[in-house]
Design brief:
The chain is α+β, with helices and mostly antiparallel strands. 27% of the residues lie in helices and 28% in strands. Helix 1 crosses helix 2 and helix 2 runs parallel beside helix 4.
Amino acid sequence: MISLIDEKGHRIDGRKLDELRPLKIEVGILKNADGSSYIEFGKNKIVVAVYGPKSVHPKHLSLPDRSFLRCRYHMAPFSTDTRKHPQPSRREIEISKVIREALEPALILEEYPRTGIDVYLEVLQADGGSRCAGITASAVALADAGISMRDMVVACAVGKISGQVVLDLDDREDKEGEADMPIAIMPNLNQTTLLQLDGILTPEEFEKGFKMALNACRHIYEVQREALINKYFGEDESGEE
């Protein structure tokens, strides 16, 4: 079995155990959407578009006391090593649901009764951790659309490879590792909106990984914040409160 960590404690891509991949977020990249964003998280490349609040179709889905949130996570046929079928897979349907449930606690949907808000995530290139990157980018696009929010939502994953707890697994680490734990939080409210675990971690490994993910999420939140400030106030204001 090939070790995913070398004798110096570095991973195959050269990162330290607690190091994130390079992150870039842009806001308002689509002129025809009410809100939009683009994220590059390592080799992940994802575009998010938000439409709404608007009339719900079909109408029986409308809710009298709040807006109806829909999320569609879709991987482009060219986003993976082998061509993916264009039709939504079970995994994409499941991740769409997970993303909606991670975002909903942050949205004040009661302000928009009998309406719908649609969030479309198009994965142009996937390299592990695309659901976390998608959640992070979706929160930015929702803010860009002017949707009332209690807080932003940021996400990243921790996992276990070659017996070590590591941050932000790439595709190979995700496939060959021993555990993967995506986490999403509202950073200012200190509330968790997503916690999944695929694999087995000891209680000590879980606690170490959770703290590692929280610290990473707070760094990602600063990148979200700077991207929004750059869009609405210009780059000169990004370092100011």
